Amino acid sequence: MLYLVALLLHCLPLAMGQYDICKSWVTTDDGPSWEFYACQPKAMRMKEYVTVRVDPAGITCGDPPERFCTHENPYLCSDECDASNPDLAHPPKLMFDSEDEGLATYWQSVTWRRYPEPLLANITLSWNKSIELTDDIVITFEYGRPTIMMLEKSLDNGRTWHPYQYYADDCMEAFSMPARRVRDLSTTSANRVLCTEEYSRWAGSKKEKTVRFEVRDRFAIFAGPDLKNMDNLYTRLESAKGLKDFFTVTDLRMRLLRPALGGTYVQRENLYKYFYAVSNIEVTGRCKCNLHANLCTFKEGSLQCECEHNTTGQDCGKCKKNFRSRSWRAGSYLPLPNGSPNACAAAGSAFGNCECYGHSNRCSYIDFLNVVTCVSCKHNTRGQHCQHCRLGFYRNSSAELDDENVCIECNCNQIGSMHDRCNETGYCECKEGATGPKCDDCLPNYYWRQGCFPNVCDDELLLCQNGGTCYQNQRCVCPVGFKGVLCQQSRCEADKKDCDGAPGVRGSLSTFLLGVLALQLRGWVDL
Ligand SMILES: *[C@@H]1O[C@H](CO)[C@@H](O)[C@H](O)[C@H]1NC(C)=O
Ligand SMILES: *[C@@H]1O[C@H](CO)[C@@H](O)[C@H](O)[C@H]1NC(C)=O
Ligand SMILES: *[C@@H]1O[C@H](CO)[C@@H](O)[C@H](O)[C@H]1NC(C)=O
Ligand SMILES: *[C@@H]1O[C@H](CO)[C@@H](O)[C@H](O)[C@H]1NC(C)=O
Ligand SMILES: *[C@@H]1O[C@H](CO)[C@@H](O)[C@H](O)[C@H]1NC(C)=O
Ligand SMILES: [Ca+2]
User: Fold this and answer.
1) Can you list the alpha helix ranges (DSSP code H) found in 167-229?
2) What is the rounded distance in angstroms from the CA atom of residue 168 to the CA atom of residue 401?
3) Which of 52, 139, 237, 525 has an alpha carbon within 20 to 30 A of 504's alpha carbon?
4) Rounded to two decimals, what is the model's pTM?
5) For residue 408, which ligand has an atom nearest its CA?
């Protein structure tokens, strides 16, 4: 009986579907204990957790109220959009409400009355959480799909954006890209960004309403047409570089570049039938929890993984305090079927008590000292527990000991400082005359020239005399007849032969005449 229970428990992860549970209580020959598995949350309808932003300001119709027509009935422009009337308003939130039977609710843009200026709109969806797509993104357009649009994605909460897919009725003309279909991609090109013409041609606004980003077709490249061979997909996601990230997003942006034209050219006499109207955006995916959680909950306005395996963070991206005896690792889908949990381990579980704060994966026992020490500390750390900063680095006071940024480079100025080291607040030790945290400045009364040197002259105490001017605190430029560091000395006093008659003009005139004479003697000048 007990054996049967154990067997049942052991089979649970398979019975419940792959990677659904993080741990189970199993009975082995050594008695009952926990067993851990790679695990991930269920896929959800992500539109319920999204924040939306529509750009530019004023692109939503109804302020002021506006009439519009449809391609089916272009001369009966009786429809009206009015933002102040709930029955006639079309705000962005109507792209995410639940579509019950009956009339579709939708966001709608202003009409293309400014033609030929392009009618552009951005719809940006943000989750403030990494999400792994598990099914197609499906955007439903009422009154016709755009003839040109683009899908972009971000992986870093909107700081950087990348193209995800291009859509046009003529890819070459719109984007200078050949038209391709996802179905024609191969195992090596499954994460290619392409332009498709499948969703942009006019087919009647009632008939073809959706624009897709085909996640299933890309999965099918590995898992087969009905996604029966998920094991193969999981193996590929684990091993093919960049493949997992390709399906991961924190934000999506639809850039609507040209509205539906009804299968013909733009008719300038009736611009009220050109606009965008989106009734639904379906995004299906699961929280990315690095295979360390099987639950993801909506808390304080954001999705959060309920981390297991002694991990923590929004994506279970690091080890909990006191569980950092080795570096954090994501769980793995492999080996099949239960994967590897790659759980964080408590300090003290390996080699006695050797915590390395996540800067090293290895400890080593040093025989003659009888200590266990971390080996090859990373992130510019050093020490038995990688708890110190390497020489030339100092401790980042706003980072915990296990943070990758825990040590900051001193960056001492090579010329101005005594050496590469700095104190605990990042101050370098300066040579005479140098100052500043990095010793790249000079003290007052010093000037910088490959190091700091005391001023020779300045505008206060070390004034150049007799009308001399101070050049960059380095030397006085003296007028004729004076010399010395501060031009304090008359040439007359220093050198008697400069003093015949009046100094200056006559002296230089006689020098000139002597010069001319010399040249004449050599036959170069005719007087
Ligand atoms: C839409 O977003 C792109 C960046 O992805 C930006 O360059 C463009 O100006 C935006 N368009 C509008 C109409 O806000
Ligand atoms: C994003 O999520 C993080 C972590 O849950 C939270 O601290 C932050 O306030 C959220 N930011 C926004 C803009 O909601
Ligand atoms: C996490 O730590 C707890 C002790 O707080 C331990 O009982 C549990 O087995 C650990 N889990 C894993 C996956 O290592
Ligand atoms: C100090 O650590 C914090 C937290 O990780 C990090 O945001 C910051 O960039 C670090 N400072 C420097 C100068 O590296
Ligand atoms: C580091 O040096 C600077 C400049 O000499 C000094 O102000 C600071 O107090 C020093 N910090 C420590 C922790 O010694
Ligand atoms: Ca709707």
Assistant:
1) 171-175, 215-223
2) 51
3) 525
4) 0.70
5) 4
Ligand nearest to the CA of 51: 2
| Calpha distance 24→502 (Å, rounded) | 109
The residue among 354 and 173 whose pLDDT is bigger is 173
DSSP string, 230-298: HHHHHHHHHHSTTHHHHTEEEEEEEEEEE---TTS---TT-GGG---EEEEEE-EEEE--TTB-S-EEE
Q: How confident is the model at residue 367 (pLDDT cuts 50, 70, 90)?
A: confident
Q: How many CB atoms lie within 10 A of CB 135?
A: 17
The alpha carbon of 77 and the centre of ligand 6 are apart by a number of angstroms equal to 23
Q: Is 370 exposed, middle or buried (0-12, 13-18, 19+ CB in 10 A)?
A: exposed
> In which residue are the tokens 């549970």 written?
21
Closest atom of ligand 3 to CA, residue 23: 13
Q: pLDDT at position 314, please?
A: 93
Ligand 5 interacting residues, C-beta cut-off 6 A: 423-425, 427
Q: Are 160 and 154 in contact (CB under 8 A)?
A: yes
What span, in angstroms and rounded, lies between the C-alpha atoms of 373 and 302? 40
Nearest CA to ligand 3 atom 3: 310
Which ligand does the CA of 157 lie closest to? 2
**What residues are in contact with ligand 1 under a 6 Å CB criterion?**
55-56, 120, 122, 152, 161, 253, 255
Please name the residue whose Cα sits nearest to atom 9 of ligand 5: 425
- 38: which 2 tokens? 């790679």
The pLDDT assigned to 496 comes to 62
- Euclidean distance between CA atoms 463 and 469, whole angstroms: 8
CA-403 nearest atom, ligand 4: 5
Burial of 182 per CB tally in 10 Å (0-12, 13-18, 19+): buried
State how far the Cα of 310 lies from the Cα of 305, in Å rounded to an integer: 12
> What separation in Å is there between the alpha carbon of 382 and the centre of ligand 5?
22
Q: Is residue 363 helix, strand or coil?
A: strand
Ligand 1 atom, smallest distance to 120 CA: 13
Ligand 5 atom nearest the C-alpha of 425 is 11
For 98-106, which contacts have Cβ atoms below 8 Å and span 24 or more sequence positions? Answer: 99/279, 99/280, 104/140, 104/142, 104/279, 104/280, 105/279, 106/142, 106/277, 106/278, 106/279, 106/280
459-487 per-position pLDDT tens digit = 888 999 999 999 999 999 999 999 999 99
Which of 213-222, 243-252, 381-390 bottoms out in mean pLDDT, i.e. has the lowest?
Answer: 381-390
